[in-house]
Amino acid sequence: MEDFLASKRNTSGFSHSKIILTGEHAVVYGNPAIALPFPLKVEAIIEEITSDIIVESTFYTGPLEQIPTKLKGISACIQQVLSDLNRPCDKLKITIHSQIPIGKGLGSSAAIAVAIVRGLFSFFETKLDDETLAAFVHTAEVYAHGNPSGIDMATAMSDTPIWFQNGDIVRLEVTSPLHFVIADSGRIGNTQKTVSRVRALYDKDEVLKENSLRRMKEIAFAAKSAMAKGDILELGKLLNKNHSELIRIGVSDDGLNQLVHTAKKAGALGAKLTGGGDGGCMLALTDSKEKAEEISSALASAGAHQTWCFTIES
């Protein structure tokens, strides 16, 4: 076990998950997307110890220098923060508590990085602005996604829904409560692979690319308007249209489509996959918490690995 100092210091940094409401995949091409903060939490606890820096989590516990390749983004992020703060890379324990399932399109890598950076800056009693935070988190996201759009990071840093386009972020107001159900298909997606597959499809067919991106852009703008007006019926219809577009470009699968169908049959106003697709999660919009619970039960009965209900309010 690691040796703790008798009078150890410790602080925590926090973040949360994200849900893409509209615009996944299209956002990579400069289209707008709408993303929502999703209340699955991450806490990064920073403690002073007498041994070399270690990381403790459900997915890896051990020295930072031996962290697995799939977590190198976290390592690089930590080392960059410590270097920029002119702090030695030792005598720290970083414990990560995350409620976010990995590989399900819920922004786990970005949320973990945000929590760690916030925790480290708090531990060293250094002021942290959003621009600096984003720069450090981007380092981790490059390892995780290759060429990230930045939407995961932006949403993990925001407590409100956001409109995201080419790195520009606008906070969105919600005039009526939006009740959602999220269902985990139980299959791990791979955003890098689906993004690459869509790019190959678009490269082969310029007309398809142009029409697809135009339609998804129109859906995003219409969804933004529906949210501002509190028109949840229209928003539900737009989510259905968005899912059809994602099917058209080949990023949904039979399992996700079945969950979407189940949610609509159970009374959802609209439903779609969320995130990269080919597994991962889907979302459903409804008009009440009670209906959300009903849809959640229906999705669980249809084979969803896990479900969550949450509400976005003004």
UniProtKB/TrEMBL annotation:
It is an enzyme of class 2 (transferase). Its main location: cytoplasm. Pfam families: GHMP_kinases_C (PF08544), GHMP_kinases_N (PF00288). Pathway: Isoprenoid biosynthesis; isopentenyl diphosphate biosynthesis via mevalonate pathway; isopentenyl diphosphate from (R)-mevalonate: step 1/3. One of its GO terms (cellular component) is cytosol. GO terms for biological process: isopentenyl diphosphate biosynthetic process, mevalonate pathway. GO terms for molecular function: ATP binding; mevalonate kinase activity. Its EC number is 2.7.1.36. Belongs to the GHMP kinase family. Mevalonate kinase subfamily. This is mevalonate kinase. It comes from Sporosarcina pasteurii. The lineage of its organism: Bacteria, Bacillati, Bacillota, Bacilli, Bacillales.
